[in-house]
Amino acid sequence: MIREFREFIARGNVIDLAVGIIIGAAFTAIVNSLVADLINPILGLLTGGVDFTNKYFVLSGNVPEGASLAAARDSGAAVFAYGAFAMAVLNFLIIAWAVFLLVKAVNRLQRMAVRPKEEVAAGPTQEELLAQIRDLLADRTAWADRPAPRI
């Protein structure tokens, strides 16, 4: 059983999956930093300092005026957190764009690594070869019907 487990772990696809998960986690951290540290401040600057993550409507319950989204949720009130949703959509779009660019770059590298094979000079087709064989056999048959030459 231990041997089977070692063989399972040693397979290339399991190791590739593990590497993909680790790189994905690191990539997520980079994208989250991109959104939180670069894009949110720019959006805040363009919208006059508005932070979208704390935008919400109170559907039911009592929330102190100007409370953050976390405080509103902690108070037990039902809130419609449209700002957090908008930021999640923006985060998704940024991640999708970054993955698109990454896949595009990897595909370009793969195309550069695999050089197209040189075209081989086209020889006769199968039909042409069969016709040549037929003609050779016909010539041989014609010689077989002739009398043997006298020496």
UniProtKB/TrEMBL annotation:
Assigned keywords, A-Z: Cell inner membrane, Cell membrane, Ion channel, Ion transport, Membrane, Transmembrane, Transmembrane helix, Transport
Protein name per Swiss-Prot or TrEMBL: Large-conductance mechanosensitive channel
Keyword Thylakoid attributed: no
Membrane topology listed for this record: Multi-pass membrane protein
Function as written in the Swiss-Prot or TrEMBL entry: Channel that opens in response to stretch forces in the membrane lipid bilayer. May participate in the regulation of osmotic pressure changes within the cell.
Compartment(s) where it occurs, according to its Swiss-Prot or TrEMBL record: Cell inner membrane; Cell membrane
Pfam families reported in the protein's UniProt record: MscL
Native organism: Paracoccus acridae
UniProt similarity note: Belongs to the MscL family.
PANTHER family, sorted: LARGE-CONDUCTANCE MECHANOSENSITIVE CHANNEL, MECHANOSENSITIVE CHANNEL MSCL
Complex and partners: Homopentamer.
Parts of the chain that traverse the membrane: 12-35, 79-103
This protein's record includes keyword Transport: yes
